[in-house]
Design a protein that fits this description.
Length: about 140
């Protein structure tokens, strides 16, 4: 009975997370808010060789280097791999990691990672109980 309750809780949690993600992807207001947060995070890094940044773009490309220039509509990264400058707009960015991110941004990143790890652990624990029970 406990296994069934745990399974139900896990399934409900996963469905809720999936619906939140789906809403976030389809809501233009939410998209604008995400872009504004990315812009704020990038602008808060400052510029220069100490403003190290890792960017994952929406097309899954990764860019790493330092922030050479940043303003309201675009920013420039001195790419450490290609040794070239790359100009990007904020809507192109999926995620950003920088050495000067605010404490709130770091907490949000860690909280997201911990939540994901807990959900994966629960899933594998539950899945392991199912396969051992039928073995």
């Amino acid at each position: 009975m406990i296994k069934k309750c745990m399974a139900l809780v896990l399934v409900c949690s996963l469905l809720q997370i999936a619906s939140i993600v789906a809403l976030a992807k389809t809501n233009p207001e939410s998209e604008a808010q995400n872009i504004a947060k990315l812009r704020t995070a990038i602008l808060s890094l400052g510029v220069g060789p100490n403003a190290h940044i890792k960017i994952k773009l929406r097309d899954k490309t990764k860019v790493e280097g330092y922030l050479k220039e940043a303003n309201d509509d675009h920013f420039v990264i001195a790419d450490s791999r290609t040794k070239t400058d790359r100009s990007l707009t904020y809507p192109q960015v999926q995620s950003v990691h920088g050495n000067n991110l605010s404490t709130g941004a770091k907490i949000a990143i860690v909280a997201g990672a911990v939540t994901g790890a807990v959900l994966l652990t629960l899933f594998f624990l539950y899945h392991g109980h199912l396969t051992r029970g039928h073995g």
